[in-house]
Design a protein that fits this description.
Layout (H helix, E strand, L loop, with lengths): L8 H16 L4 H12 L3 H9 L4 H14 L3 H11 L4 H11 L9 H6 L12 H16 L5 H22 L1
Helix pairs in contact: 1-2, 2-6, 5-6
Amino acid sequence: MDLIKYYFLEDYLFKEVKNNFYKHRYLTPEEFFCIVIWKSNRAKTAIKSKLLKFGNLRKTVEKLTNEIFHTRGNKHKLELLVKSWKFSLPMAAAILTVLYPKEFTMYDVRVRGQMSIHKDFAGHENQVERYFDEFLPKVRKMGRGKDLRNKDRYLWGKSFYEDLEKFLKN
């Protein structure tokens, strides 16, 4: 096993994990929790506890990710995670960004700030609709690069750099 892949976690996720998802039509707990940790390491214990309430972790992750695979329509995939499985919008978007990087992008505070969306709509009743109607179109327009993933990276990097500059000036 090539353990170095975990050092370059994003590359591992967008290559091997995504490919395994399409090949097997589900993810293993190891693959799934690599996505969770990549998005928010602090959330891994709470998400594991939530999934364990359904029984065996391996079977639950396989069921969850197989449901994602078989759910038709991007909106329905996000609703599945947010409404049926009770994931937060940022975590649900992260999972779907890895599995469908041409259709989804991270819902991130840095990216929202770059687009002047300062009011977080995660957790609100219409969050799925707003993700598709407001957030995603703005990322597609504002970021640099051809693909959605690089547009997101650009906006995140711009926010990081601006924060670094502010920090160094003070």
